Amino acid sequence: MPADQVRKAADISVGDAVGPVTVPVTRETLVRYAEASLDGNPIHQDEGFAKSVGLPDVIAHGMWTMGATGTVLADWAGEPGRVVEFGTRFTKPVIVPVDGNEIVVEGTVRSVDAETGRVGLDVTVTSGGEKVLGRCTAVVRLD
User: Fold this and answer.
1) Which of 40, 70, 96, 99 gets the most CB atoms within 10 Å of its CB?
2) For residue 20, cis peptide bond before it (omega within 30 degrees of 0)
3) Which of 129, 141, 132 lies closest to 63, judged by CA?
4) DSSP state of 11
5) How many CA atoms lie within 13 A of 58 on its CB side?
6) What pTM was estimated for this model as a whole?
7) What span, in angstroms and rounded, lies between the C-alpha atoms of 74 and 66?
8) Residues contacting 127, CB < 8 A, separation 6+
9) Are 119 and 107 contacting, i.e. CB atoms less than 8 angstroms apart?
10) What is the rounded distance in angstroms from the CA atom of residue 142 to the CA atom of residue 97?
11) What interhelical angle do 27-37 and 62-77 show, nearest 10?
């Protein structure tokens, strides 16, 4: 993204909303993620196996969920390198039935440091109306 499309800290206020942004996830998404990450755990691809270990269905990789959230934050800031801090706890798995699912990422600006351009965000990520990431926070650096 060109630098002139990066958000400006001066245009951001505490309480501003980020999103909501809906990110789809399919079983094909999970296969591609497993290949890229080398995480071939069958709970992410094999419905029968996932159910045999007590899960309701195939589940998304937690790191996929975190990565998809990070992409939403980077898009909001204007460039991937502008996300300077990002942390979360995994609270619930994202269930991915055969017809797919989605996560919804939204947030609120909790702080703006006009001098450094650092903007603190509180982020909420849900799937099916339930929080799947907890204590999710980020800091982005804006111009």
Assistant:
1) 96
2) yes
3) 132
4) G
5) 24
6) 0.93
7) 12
8) 92, 94, 95, 101, 102, 103, 104
9) no
10) 38
11) 90
The C-alpha atoms of residue 132 and residue 115 are separated, in whole angstroms, by 34
Sequence letter at residue 125 = V
Quickly tell me which residue has 């995480």 as its tokens: 39
DSSP string, 24-66: EE-HHHHHHHHHHHT---GGGT-HHHHHHTT-SS-B--HHHHH
- The confidence score (pLDDT) of residue 5 equals 75
Contact 13, 109 (CB under 8 A): yes
The letter for the amino acid at 122 is D
| pLDDT one-digit tens code per residue, 23-74 | 999 999 999 999 999 999 999 999 999 999 999 999 999 999 999 999 999 9
pLDDT at residue 1 greater than cutoff 60: no
Q: What is the pLDDT of residues 83-136, one digit of tens each?
A: 999 999 999 999 999 999 999 999 999 999 999 999 999 999 999 999 999 999
Alpha-carbon distance 90 to 20, whole Å? 19
In terms of Cβ atoms closer than 10 Å to its own Cβ (0-12, 13-18, 19+), residue 136 is buried
